[in-house]
Each structure stands twice: as C-alpha cells, then as structure tokens.
Amino acid sequence: MTAATEETRSLPRLKQRYREEIVAQLREQFSYSNVMQVPTLVKIKVNMGVGDAARDGKLIEGAVRDLTAITGQRPAVARARKSIAQFKLREGMPIGAHVTLRGDRMWEFLDRLLSLALPRIRDFRGLSDRQFDGNGNYTFGLNEQSVFHEIDQDRIDRVRGFDITVVTTAKTDDEGRALLRALGFPFRATS
C-alpha cells in the first residue's frame, strides 16, 4: 500500500470530495489560473449564547455539555465584559460558550451537519443564501440542539439555539456561495 493511498483513506469524506471534485469544478467556473486561488474552508465557529446563565449557573454547564457532544471539542466559556444592571449581569459572569473547529474535525462536523442534522429539522425548506458577510463567510442559526443525533433526547434540560459561522477564503459572496453550494449546503431556491 502506498503512502498516497493511506492518506486518502484517512481523510474525512467531505474533504476528499472537495479535493477530487469541487476544486476542479470551482476552478473551471471562476477560471482561476492557480489552484491556490480556489476558495476553501478556514474554520467553523459554533456559538451558543446562554443569557439566562446570569440567573442560574447550571445552565452554562448544560450548554458546555451539549456543545462538547455536538462538536467533539470542549468549548470555551464566554464571560460578560461589562456589568449591565438592567439585565442583572455582572462583569465576569458566564453568558455563553463557543467552539472553533479547524482541520479534519471541521470537515467531519460539516459532513454531519449537512448529511444528518439539517435533514432532521422539521419543515425545513432550505437555508437562506443571503446571510453572507460580503467576504464569502456564511452565518446561520439553528433553533434547537436536538437535530444532532449526538444529543440524547431524554437528557435535554432546555432547548438551546446556536449560531454556526463558516469562514472561507473566498473574496466575494458569489465565490463563497458557489463553494458552499458545491459542498452540499441546501440553499433555498430564490424566486
């Protein structure tokens, strides 16, 4: 067995498809002269805000547990930078959790998201293709953590939503949209 065969076998499924099919497709579509110009994924950021954690400290533990199960990586706890009296928030109180995924773990998470989690959303009609930031990065939110099969339905203490940001090397929204569409993002048909 050669070293190249071993390498392709250990690659995540979506990353292998990107290298074999999607790079050539995007290079032809945008007529890039160099393969390094083809946009790719940099990182995926998963953010779960828990505003009620200011009143109940156990809520942040549930958010950390859920994000750990979903992403396979321990999240960092976000703390309040300022005290805000109207929200009964003090500086340093935990208010959320976030994870930054890179490398193979990012590709595996994206594969699970696209092939398992999004199809489990009830009445799902596709993601909006208008939520790009102008530089080819895409952010969308999910209303509940139970769409991931890693979460045990019986152990959910409360429904938590979270945001997912996909950061790419694309220069424009059109390049980012083409990359994500080629990766399998189910964008809504615009009429």
Characterize the structure shown.
- The protein is an alpha+beta fold and 191 residues long.
- The protein is built from 5 helices and 5 strands.
- The chain has a 5-stranded antiparallel β-sheet.
Helix content: 25-40%
Q: Kindly state the number of beta strands.
A: 5
Number of helices: 5
Strand order of the largest sheet: 2-3-1-5-4
Strand content: 15-25%
Our Rg estimate from Cα atoms comes to: 19 Å
Oligomer: single chain
N-to-C span: 51 Å
List the secondary-structure elements in sequence, H or E.
HHEHEEHEEH
Largest sheet: 5 strands, antiparallel
Poorly predicted runs? none
Overall geometric form: globular
Residue-averaged pLDDT: 84
Structural class designation = alpha+beta
Keywords:
5-stranded antiparallel beta sheet, 191 residues, alpha+beta
Annotate the secondary structure layout.
Layout (H helix, E strand, L loop, with lengths): L2 H8 L2 H18 L10 E9 L8 H14 L4 E4 L14 E8 L1 H15 L20 E5 L19 E7 L4 H11 L8
Antiparallel strand pairs: 1-3, 1-5, 2-3, 4-5
